[in-house]
Amino acid sequence: MHSFAPEIMLITLLAVVVVSDTLADRLKVPSVFLLLIGSYLVYQMFPAAVPLDLRAHFDTVILLCIPLIFMGDALHLHFKDVRQFGFEIFYLAVFAVALSIAAGASLYQLELFAPLSLGGYVALFAINMATDAVSVQSVLSRFEGISHDLKVLIEGESLGNDATAVIAFFFVGLPWMLSGSIDPVAASFDAVRVFAVSLGLGVAMGFGFYLLMKLVEHQRGEFFIFVVEGYAAYVLGEEMHVSGILTLIAAIIATKAWIDADIRRSGERDARKTKSYRLQQLYHQLRFGGYHATTEQRLEYIFEMAKEFGYLATVMIFFTLAEIVDYEQLWYYRYEILAMFAATTMIRALSMAKFALFGHRFNLIKPVGFEGWFILTFSGMKGALSIILVHMIPDSFAHKALFESVTVGVVMLSIFGYGVTLWGYFVLKSRRASAALQTHKR
């Protein structure tokens, strides 16, 4: 008899999304809270609604979800913002993450996680420093008044942070933890190689898919080209033993950058015919500039569709998280979970303090003030990527239960702890602004 498990699973996913969004709008709360709670309740109370063993097929779930999660976030980030805030994003996404992982590993001397080696500390902190852009956007999108500059920092950090954490985990922490030793010089060069090759490969693929999009003239086809690009970049990056996630992010941003350049030029007047103009014309011809990849109106459709597909992928990961949750294990490792949550929060707060305390002293660093520091600190919610990385640890590893419990605990604490903190802050700020407006009217 035919099994309808895939159809039932799809119905469940869509139902959880619809119900969560509806309740979130009615209750004025971030939908990510209800998605996480709803996924767990459905899994526990209505097991027939989740007929697929997601944990047994976790590798398949990962390959399906990762490109969809990161594609939407990469499309939302404009290249002009990356160029304008490049130093800040590089600091947040690369330098600050590397320092944070190193700071976490230095706690090895305190024996917070006694069974682990120094390599284990590096791997554990790499996993738990990876942020979740979908969860962050779910909270921040509920509230107005966040400056564009701050949104760019948060979006850029969430994307780059994940790529850096993945490289640190796979090319430094994991091999060090499993082998017991590592050559730091070789590991550093390997990490730099991975970073450079992933970026170069992504940019090259981005240009190729940008040219491909010129052959299509309808929004649905253009959206599907972006989907194919995301999957192709991720798979090719992984097959070449570099970072598939960084390759994907670079490819999508590169394609979007050339599309934005086309749209911008189409609205400008013709430049004067100088030597510079002739060079621009040659460049224009090489890019088949007479054919547009897409339009602003069609891009809006692509953004919305990418966001919805990423949303569904995140819910799928949340259902997998519901299968991983073991309350007995969480209680057994409760002190380790709290220690990791406190350590990662403190490290993040210190790394973000640069923008509040020293931003005015450096032209390249954007000063954000206390409010910006507060938002940047508590926008570091963990999520899908942390769950994915911890699954990549071999089952034969003696302390995998510790890694799983600590990571699941930190993901849940960060989503609800950070999320509720941000939500409460914005609600209070909104009420104060409303009260001040009423007082002014009187």
UniProtKB/TrEMBL annotation:
<feature type="transmembrane region" description="Helical">
    <location>
        <begin position="6"/>
        <end position="24"/>
    </location>
</feature>
<keyword id="KW-0813">Transport</keyword>
<feature type="transmembrane region" description="Helical">
    <location>
        <begin position="161"/>
        <end position="179"/>
    </location>
</feature>
<feature type="transmembrane region" description="Helical">
    <location>
        <begin position="242"/>
        <end position="259"/>
    </location>
</feature>
<feature type="transmembrane region" description="Helical">
    <location>
        <begin position="56"/>
        <end position="77"/>
    </location>
</feature>
<dbReference type="InterPro" id="IPR018422">
    <property type="entry name" value="Cation/H_exchanger_CPA1"/>
</dbReference>
<dbReference type="Pfam" id="PF00999">
    <property type="entry name" value="Na_H_Exchanger"/>
</dbReference>
<dbReference type="InterPro" id="IPR006153">
    <property type="entry name" value="Cation/H_exchanger_TM"/>
</dbReference>
<keyword id="KW-0812">Transmembrane</keyword>
<feature type="transmembrane region" description="Helical">
    <location>
        <begin position="191"/>
        <end position="213"/>
    </location>
</feature>
<keyword id="KW-1133">Transmembrane helix</keyword>
<feature type="transmembrane region" description="Helical">
    <location>
        <begin position="337"/>
        <end position="358"/>
    </location>
</feature>
<feature type="transmembrane region" description="Helical">
    <location>
        <begin position="89"/>
        <end position="108"/>
    </location>
</feature>
<feature type="transmembrane region" description="Helical">
    <location>
        <begin position="405"/>
        <end position="428"/>
    </location>
</feature>
<keyword id="KW-1003">Cell membrane</keyword>
<protein>
    <submittedName>
        <fullName>Cation:proton antiporter</fullName>
    </submittedName>
</protein>
<keyword id="KW-0915">Sodium</keyword>
<feature type="domain" description="Cation/H+ exchanger transmembrane">
    <location>
        <begin position="16"/>
        <end position="251"/>
    </location>
</feature>
<keyword id="KW-0472">Membrane</keyword>
<feature type="transmembrane region" description="Helical">
    <location>
        <begin position="31"/>
        <end position="50"/>
    </location>
</feature>
<feature type="transmembrane region" description="Helical">
    <location>
        <begin position="370"/>
        <end position="393"/>
    </location>
</feature>
<keyword id="KW-0739">Sodium transport</keyword>
<keyword id="KW-0406">Ion transport</keyword>
<feature type="transmembrane region" description="Helical">
    <location>
        <begin position="309"/>
        <end position="325"/>
    </location>
</feature>
